[in-house]
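Lay summary

Proteins are chains of building blocks that fold into shapes. Our project writes down both the chain and a compact code for its shape. Here are two examples, one after the other.
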Amino acid sequence: MNEFARKKRALEHSRRINAGDLDAIIDLYAPDAVLEDPVGSPPVTGHDALRAHYEPLLAARVREEAAEPVAGQDAAHALIQVTSVMDYLPAGPLYAERGWLKAPDAPETARVRRTAMLVIRMDASGLVRHLKSYWGTSDLTVLG
């Protein structure tokens, strides 16, 4: 894939998340793709694990705002900063338990904002082979 196609595919990932279409999100990934959140959870591999990863995010009404992607010169990677806002429940209590943020007074109505840098490796057909999401505790904010 050329640089422009990889950038477009990175933006498409956020668009499909915002559309809430789980099947369309999974279709972006190779069957043996790996998603890593080195800070928050262990790697997940394959469509079933990806589905289990994305289902609770979509249930938490996640919305992403994506910055302009950057293409790697290696003909495989795209990097994109994504700011996500989602309901505090269900993932927020885990973040609070780990000391990454302060639990809100009204968890039922609170939202969490997280800014992350996604490093996405794609194959020649445009399928995501590996996605890593990098963020730190200073990138988490409770809203409300």
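And here is the second example, written the same way.
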Amino acid sequence: MSLSMRNQFAGTVTAITAGQAMATVRVRLEGGQDITAAITKDAVKDLGIADGSAVTALVKATEVALATGPVEGISIRNQLRGTVSGIDAGAAMASVKVDVDGGGLTAAITRDAVDALGLEAGSPVVALIKSTEISLATA
């Protein structure tokens, strides 16, 4: 299956915490960074997700925010450190490519944000992704 989601990260499930209807699934990405996805308990069961399962984490580019360093005092748990590898900027929006350990990701942000943050190729950044915006797929 081909998907329009540009951000696809291979990883291994390292922990599952089940709640009443939702579960958080911790995934160790191939590059060594951890992310957490919040998905339904039914999805965990239907996909057969367990500790040690191989999964692919999927994130739309529009759901990735960028910061110039780690952010404290925020509810967003997923903060992936990386380096800007390229920017394709239009008048209103920009597609920012970021190299992270184990791969790359794309963030769709405003041109104003690129300018305000002073982003350019080589800039260190932190990609911020809410756990509720990460989908998981199994083979």
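What can we say about the second shape? The radius of gyration is 15 Å.
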